[in-house]
Amino acid sequence: MMSVMGCDGDQLHVAGMWQDPKGVIADDLLPDGTKVKKGSLVVYVAYAMGCMTALWGADACDFKPERWLKDGVVQPESPFKFTAFQVF
């Protein structure tokens, strides 16, 4: 239970940098279809992502450790959705 409490705490209160800029080294296409050109700067805000209802549901800003469990087993999230451990 401690691990899911930690995950939910980290989802809501990301440690480290709040923004994570990435330089674009070649023209690319993001998963949502957005085109990014070489030389652009793409920035995501991990703190804001932790409270996005589109990612986490209507209760995104609620402390809800059970969101990490399925049939009593911890279910890891994609590191692209749960960015708390890749912000450094």
Automatic annotation (TrEMBL):
InterPro entries: Cyt_P450, Cyt_P450_sf. The chain crosses the membrane at residues 41-58. SUPFAM superfamilies: Cytochrome P450. It comes from the Eukaryota. The keyword Nuclease does not apply. Signal peptide: none annotated. It holds the Pfam family p450. Keywords: Iron, Membrane, Metal-binding, Oxidoreductase, Transmembrane, Transmembrane helix. Belongs to the cytochrome P450 family. This is Uncharacterized protein. The lineage of its organism: Eukaryota, Viridiplantae, Streptophyta, Embryophyta, Bryophyta.
